[in-house]
Structures are given as structure tokens and as C-alpha cells.
Amino acid sequence: MVRWLLLSLALLVSPAGAETLTLTIQPEPRHKDLVAGEMLPVTIRAVYDRKVANEKLEIAPSDSFDWIQTAPDSWRQEILGGLPWQVMERHLALFPRRPGVLHFGPVFHHLTIIDEASQRQPREVKAQPVEIPVGPFPAERGWKLAAERLTLRQELSTDPAHLADGETVTRRITLTAEGALPEMLPPRPVVSENWLITFAAPVERKLTLTAEGPVAEVVWTWQFRPETGEPGVIEPVTIPYFDSNTRRMESVEIPPLSIGYASFAANRTRTGRFGIWEDALSGAAIIAGVGAGTGVMLWRSAPAAGRTGWKRLLRRWSPLPRLALRRAARAGDPLALRRAAEAYLDGRTSPAIRSLLAGLDRRIYGPEPQTFKPDAFVRDLRQAAGRSDV
Predict the structure, then answer these.
(1) According to the CATH classification, is domain 2-134 in 1.10.10?
(2) Which residues form the signal peptide (predicted)?
(3) Cα 11–Cα 76–Cα 117 angle in degrees, nearest 5
(4) What is the pLDDT of residue 16?
(5) Closest CA to 222 of 202, 193, 252
(6) 215 Cβ partners below 8 Å, 6+ apart?
(7) Which residue, among 242, 263, 336, 203, has the nearest Cα to 33 in the 3D structure?
(8) How far are the Cα atoms of 16, 18, 125 from residue 120, in angstroms, in the given order?
(9) Crossing angle of helices 351-365 and 334-345, rounded to 10°
(10) Which end of the chain is more exposed for a tag (fewer CB within 10 A), N or C?
């Protein structure tokens, strides 16, 4: 009301033919005691008594604020003091980068107006900078995020605690912050467990502009697959933030995630149909099993130093792991091949073995299809295992 009274008074005292061109920066804080990183709505408002043929608004660069325009410029005609006026408004969301007494502006509006003689005339209108006090972010350590509202949503492709043998679970976490920009959201948490094969997809970021301000969204996607099938738990991750409404530090949590094969508890193994030659070898495996039983008795009675040799002998002569390797290679199933390789190796490792397994993992989890020959992998793995001493 005071602004319109002053404007009307300016009209009354202005001489005939004089122009009245005003431009102001109007902070519109929603909360007291603005803190660093918190959104501050601002309106740049122009009121002109001349028609505008062309215009360009220029905001002086600043190292004190980030900002974004939240809606298209609004141009309209208003009746003020009984006379028509051209009114322009630009809505911004400002984000102070640091605490202190900061300044935003000046703002320049470069105009081409139509004067009383219907002639085009250049004009430049200036809005004086405004002073904005900013307090420190409440938390001294950690990622500094302020938001009107922060929500977290989890999506799972399947039940991670009861995976089928060789199955992969996809976890998708969506973090949405109202009153923030995408680059203000925290980085993706690192998931690294010895018992887990992990592939992290590229981070997705999205910005939506609304009448209430920007809404930032980030999506983190992982694919998880157990190394051995034994159940394990990914620890929860807490994401703190400053809630602009409660004026307190709050948090959301990525919940813990239990991952394991359903067959592990029941000690089941993945099965498949054997070919003719594999049936014959299976029969031989029965005979070998009898011999293995005798070997186990001898192994138990042998000194501890000699047991490693017996274990290696039984492992190398058993045909079942080799059958599983060939079966998975022939089926062209890389996940089944990875599981069969783990069973065949039975703890044996070497630089060559690790290199071969890494190549198979790239085939399974790589972002782009990898050239991979299952038969060659089986051949090379058997050779590398034969040279392994572990």
C-alpha cells in the first residue's frame, strides 16, 4: 500500500511529459533468520508509464548467491492512481553461498520505449542492490543441504533376501528436495562389501520448476548380487538436512538391505538337464564318490599338515564342478557361469584367476555389451586353477 501511495504521489508531482520508470528488488523471505544454502524467493518488479517495445534484464554477477528463475517473466497492465501502467515481474529463487551480510544486485533493465511522440527511445533503468543478512548453516560437518521438504523412496526389483540362484536385485533410491537445486543434493553413497558384487548405474538428476520454487530430484541405482549366496546386510545410510519449516536439522534414511539366495538356508543348488555324455560322467561321479568317502576317512586320520593335499586332490578329481562349468558355458548364461566358477575354484585364487573373473563381471555388469567367449573362459580358468597353489 505504501508503495502505491508513493507512486501516486510521484505522478502528481511529475511535470507533464516526464517519464516514470521504476525498478526494484523485493526479497520475500518465508522464514526468519535465513541460513547459508536456504532458498530465498525474490521478485524483481518494474513499473513503467511508457510502452516497452524491447527489453533485456541484466543481473549483476555475484559470488555470494546462486539463483534460478522459477517462472517466465510476467508482463501486464495495471491501473495505478487512475492511470495505466506497464508492470513486469521476474521471480527468482536465491541460495546464499555463505553466511554474512550479503548483497544482491544491482539489476539493469535495458529498454526501448515509445515516447509521447510515438518515437522509439533507449533507456536504462537500475534497481539498487539489496542487503541480505545470512546466518551460518547449523551443522559444521557433513553435506550441507537445506530444503523445505526432503523425501526418500526405495524401489526393489525383487525380494533381495530370497533371490533365485544367480539372480541380481536392482535397488533404486529417489531423493526429492523441495526448495533446492540438483547440485545441492549429496553424492551417491558408496556401497562396497566383500561378499557382494555391485554395479552402480550413472546418477540421474532432475529439476522441476513450480510456483513454490525449484524441486530437485536425484536417482541412485545399484545392481547387487551375492558372491556366495550367504545372506548379508547393507548398512543403512543417514542423510541429514536443514528443514526450513521446523528450523532444525532433520534426516532421512536409506534403510538396511538384507541380500541372499533363497537356496542357501536349504542348502539347495541350481540344477539343469544333463546331456548324454554328462549322464555318463555323472555315473562316474558316483563311483568317484565312493572313493572320495574312503579318502575322507584317511584325511580325517591324517595329520593337519597333510589335509591340504587331500582336499586339493578331492577337489581336482571331482567331476561335478567341471560339469557345472561346461553346462553354464554351453547355456550362454553368464550369471550361472559366475556361480559355477566360484564353486569350481573352491577358494583357489591367483592374479590370472582374478583377471578372468573380472572379465566375466564386466560382461555381466558392464554398461555396454562386452565381447566374451564362454568356452575360452572355461578353458583358461581350468588352466589357471591348475597352476594355483591356494
Answers:
(1) no
(2) 1-18
(3) 55
(4) 45
(5) 202
(6) 176, 177, 178, 179, 180, 207, 208, 209
(7) 242
(8) 19, 15, 16
(9) 160
(10) N
Q: What span, in angstroms and rounded, lies between the C-alpha atoms of 48 and 23?
A: 9
Instruction: Say which residues have a Cβ less than 8 Å from residue 306's Cβ, sequence separation at least 6.
Output: 299
Say how far apart CA 78 and CA 82 lie, in whole Å.
9
In this prediction, residue 215 carries a pLDDT of 99
Instruction: Decide: 44 and 57 in contact? Cβ < 8 Å.
Output: yes
Residue identified by cell 539498487 is 128
Cis amide leading into 106 (omega within 30): yes
Dihedral in degrees, nearest 10, Cα atoms 255, 256, 262, 264: 180
Q: How many CB atoms lie within 10 A of CB 20?
A: 14
Query: What tens digit of pLDDT does each residue of 1-42 get?
Result: 444 444 444 444 444 456 899 999 999 999 989 999 999 999
CB 325 within 8 A of CB 377: no
Sign, CA torsion 44/45/49/53: positive
For the chain, list residues with pLDDT below 70: 1-18, 229, 265-318, 365-370, 389-390
d(C-alpha 109, C-alpha 124), whole Å: 6
**pTM of the full predicted structure?**
0.65
Taking alpha carbons only, the member of 28, 44, 71 closest to residue 209 is 71
